[in-house]
Amino acid sequence: FYSLVVRSDLGLNSGASARDIAQALSGKRIGVIAAGSNNERFTQALISAGGVDSAKVTYVPLGGPANQLAAMTQKNIEAHLGWEPFLTITSLRGLGKVVIDCRIPGQCPEALEKPGGAFQTYYTTRSFLDSNPKTVEAFVRAHQKIDAWVHDPKNRTALVEAVARLVPPSAGVD
């Protein structure tokens, strides 16, 4: 899951409030995977949850961890919403530190934890949406049903079994 890494020279520490972090990043550049991606939308929601207008941040589309690391090293961004190995590498090199780790319950703003650890974005074209409204409605309903099933505690065993069939045993799913 995503974690917010900020450059070490910003003076923010793990444990800073979402509000303090968002205010420190107002007017700054935050690296995201791609413009319009769920990563960018999550970053915008993170900033908004801290009480700052997400439009007051510049979102820089970078792609994956290698480009994130280069941008942090060259000081082209002040923060990035990323994942491993970017988190560990930036920390070990002293370039940045994780200030919000959404992998840890309670660190991510409550509004972003409520979806249950999933933050998905689906896209379509306006012409497809206009031509196929019933198909789009069925798609949304199906995903709502899937989400409800996944979060129903009585389905935990079946969920773990289904995931175990898809994930290699070395991933440690149990």
Mean pLDDT: 84
Return residue spans where pLDDT drops below 50 for at least 5 consecutive residues: 170-174
Number of helices: 8
**How many runs of DSSP E, i.e. beta strands?**
5
The radius of gyration is: 18 Å
Strand content: 5-15%
The shape is globular
Instruction: Identify the quaternary structure here.
Output: single chain
First and last CA, distance: 18 Å
* Classification by helices and strands: alpha/beta
Describe this structure in words.
The protein has a 5-stranded mixed sheet with strand order 3-2-4-1-5, sandwiched between helices. Helix 1 (18-25) packs across helix 2. By secondary structure, the chain is of the alpha/beta class. Helix content is 44%, strand content 13%. The protein is globular and about 50 Å long. It contains 8 helices and 5 strands, in the order βαβαβαβαβαααα. The chain has helices at 18-25, 38-49, 65-73, 86-92, 110-113, 126-131, 133-151, 156-166, and strands spanning 3-7, 29-32, 58-61, 79-82, 96-101.
Quick overview of this protein structure:
The protein is α/β, with parallel strands linked by helices and 174 residues long. Helices cover 44% and strands 13% of the residues. The chain is globular, with a radius of gyration of 18 Å.
Helix-strand layout with pairing:
Layout: E1 3-7, H1 18-25, E2 29-32, H2 38-49, E3 58-61, H3 65-73, E4 79-82, H4 86-92, E5 96-101, H5 110-113, H6 126-131, H7 133-151, H8 156-166
Keywords:
44% helix; 5 strands; five-stranded mixed sheet; alpha/beta; single chain; 174 residues; 8 helices
